[in-house]
Design brief:
This protein is of the alpha/beta class. Helices cover 25% and strands 19% of the residues. It has one domain: 3-Layer(aba) Sandwich (Rossmann fold), CATH 3.40.50.1820. Strand 6, helix 4 and strand 7 form a beta-alpha-beta unit.
Length: 226
């Protein structure tokens, strides 16, 4: 008795296609600048902030531990909207496609100038910010990355018209400062407009100094995508 195998023939390439669907539930904070309700025609900029690994997968309140969300809670007068989603997975990377879908929805539902969208993140969120700017080069008017792993081989994929500001502590034991050193060197060699604050003697918590710098938000607010 012989068994007939219904499996595909070995060493045969089969052409096919299937539609895939990715769904993600993202909780977030959204802050509006002073005067937003008084100016019914005016469009504002928007800052997208991506937090670090420590704020992933827990309560939304944890997003307010550092950076712009903490400053929002303390009443800092940002001149633009601030969108701060939470990564729902403790040990998974940011779902960048989901973040972009959220961003596009918030922009569409509010008076946001699509040419004045700014991006920043710290640690794991800084790494995700680099990746987001690489994958969506025509979205952001400015990028500020704090102690993030950098996609240096793909630096040339970034929009050359987008100004960049990088922050990192020289003694960072989590994400080596060489990540930012190498990326900044590569960007400058390629002719990008990039600023670099390298904090000597500072460890991983370089975001404390970076986000306390008022000049950062003034700089962002001046940028506009062509």
């Amino acid at each position: 008795m012989f068994l007939v195998c219904s499996c595909k023939a070995q060493n045969t390439l089969v052409e096919d296609q299937k539609e895939t669907v990715t769904k993600e539930t993202l909780r977030y904070y959204l802050s509006y600048p002073k005067g937003y309700d008084d100016a019914s025609e005016k469009e504002f900029g928007l800052l997208l902030f991506l937090h670090g690994g420590g704020e992933s997968g827990g309560q939304l309140e944890e997003v307010k531990e550092h950076g712009p969300p903490k400053m929002m809670a303390d009443g800092y007068p940002f001149p633009f909207l601030v969108l701060a989603p939470q990564n729902p997975h403790k040990k998974k990377w940011w779902n960048l496609e989901a973040v972009m879908q959220l961003l596009e929805t918030v922009v569409a539902e509010n008076r946001v100038n699509p040419n004045r969208i700014y991006l920043t993140g710290l640690s794991r969120g800084g790494s995700a910010s680099w990746d987001l700017a690489v994958q969506y080069p025509d979205t952001f008017a400015a990028l500020a990355v704090v102690c993030g792993m950098a996609p240096t081989p793909y630096a040339h994929w970034l929009n050359k018209e987008m100004p960049i500001w990088v922050f990192h502590g020289s003694d960072d034991p989590v994400i080596p400062v060489s990540e930012s050193d190498d990326m900044v060197e590569k960007l400058k060699a390629l002719g990008y407009e990039v600023r670099y604050d390298r904090y000597e003697g500072v460890g991983h918590n370089s975001w404390g100094r970076a986000y306390a710098n008022d000049e950062l938000y003034q700089w962002m607010n001046k940028q506009k995508r062509n």
